[in-house]
Design goal:
CATH class of the largest domain: Alpha Beta
Distance between the termini: 74 Å
Low-confidence stretches: 1-38
Helix content: 40-55%
Strand content: 15-25%
CATH superfamily of the largest domain: Periplasmic binding protein-like II
Order of helices and strands: HEHEHEHEEEEHEHEHEEHHHHEHHH
Shape: globular
Mean pLDDT: 89
CATH topology of the largest domain: D-Maltodextrin-Binding Protein, domain 2
Structural class: alpha/beta
Number of helices: 14
Strand order of the largest sheet: 2-1-3-11-4
Number of strands: 12
């Protein structure tokens, strides 16, 4: 074979290879199947609380039908652990105390609140020897974090009943420890996410003094938060996930046996505790309005918990549901 003939043959082989490669690429690009690199995995952190029920319902009832996103729930044992993971980008989002997310945003972490976790559902639980708010003067009262709606609700309860915030010894405790601390007399009351309030009341070790809506109408507590870099890189996946989440909230509001079974799978509480917990909480309309958010901002400033909480437009991405109205 001459050099010229060999060169021609090699060029022909190269041309055929390029055509085959182009054909394969064209096939891959047009397939668009959910299990290709077009599918985004979204990792959402949570604590096992009733306030995150829409997330559990989303995972159990809707996750398999999502076409452009795979939902992966990541369980945490405390808010500091969850916040650290979110800030470091180890998870893409979280169902969390909205005030903690606002503080992270204030400190430069680019987060977006995209929905609420629930409405109402925070209960002031006190020991059986407490009859009214004035009985709490000089007593020890527990909250999960100073940066929480529970702390704001406590502030409002004391203010509305003629007490100063400093009239009560306020301590931070992990939520699972609160029912035992109350029954052992180490604290005289607490305000925390469910189902921990219902545990004491259902067990007869405490009683309900106020529900949150009696202290703060349309209070904002837990929210669904995403890292903005995930949203920007995965807009379609974010839209599909959030739409399913909002629908899961509507399903959760039915509180039928199927929903209770899902809740019990994640919460590991007695059925009577869950039953009481669900009586205090709502899941309908999980859109975060500017009016409700701004009231939260005002309370944070009034209490000295934040000097410059993020503005609504800077922190809340309402585009996922505003376009539907």
């Amino acid at each position: 074979m001459t050099k010229k003939t060999l060169k021609t043959a090699l060029l022909a082989v190269l041309a055929v290879s390029l055509l085959l490669a182009a054909g394969c690429a064209s096939k891959d690009n047009t397939a668009g199947t959910p299990d290709t690199d077009k599918t985004a995995t979204i990792k959402i952190g949570y604590l096992p609380i009733t306030h995150a029920l829409p997330l559990y319902v989303d995972n159990e009832l809707f996750a398999d039908s999502l076409k452009s996103v795979k939902l992966e729930l990541v369980k945490f044992g405390s808010w500091p652990e969850l916040v650290d993971a979110l800030n470091a980008g180890q998870i893409d989002g979280a169902s969390m105390l909205i005030e903690l997310a606002m503080k992270a945003k204030e400190q430069g972490i680019d987060l977006k609140a995209v929905a609420l976790g629930h409405r109402d559902g925070n209960a002031v639980v006190v020991s059986n020897d407490i009859s009214n708010v004035s009985d709490l003067k000089g007593k020890t009262f527990a909250i999960p974090s100073k940066l929480s709606s529970h702390n704001i609700l406590l502030y409002l309860m004391l203010k509305n009943n003629g007490l100063e915030y400093t009239d009560v010894n306020i301590v931070e405790l992990p939520p699972p420890e609160m029912p035992a601390a109350l029954s052992e007399g180490r604290i005289s009351g607490y305000l925390v996410a469910e189902p921990f309030g219902a545990i004491a009341v259902a067990g007869g070790n405490g009683k309900l003094l106020f529900e949150s809506h009696e202290l703060w109408t349309d209070s904002v507590c837990c929210g669904l938060v995403l890292r903005n870099d995930f949203i920007e890189k995965n807009r379609a996946a974010s839209e599909e996930f959030i739409a399913a989440y909002l629908e899961a909230g509507q399903q959760a509001e039915s509180k039928d046996q199927a929903i209770k079974d899902i809740a019990l799978k994640y919460l590991k509480v007695e059925p009577q505790v869950l039953e009481l917990s669900l009586q205090w909480i709502l899941y309908e309309n999980l859109e975060l309005s500017e009016k409700d958010y701004n009231r939260l901002r005002d309370y944070l400033v009034e209490m000295g918990l934040s000097e410059a909480p993020p503005a609504y437009d800077a922190f809340v991405d309402s585009s996922f549901y505003d376009k539907e109205t």
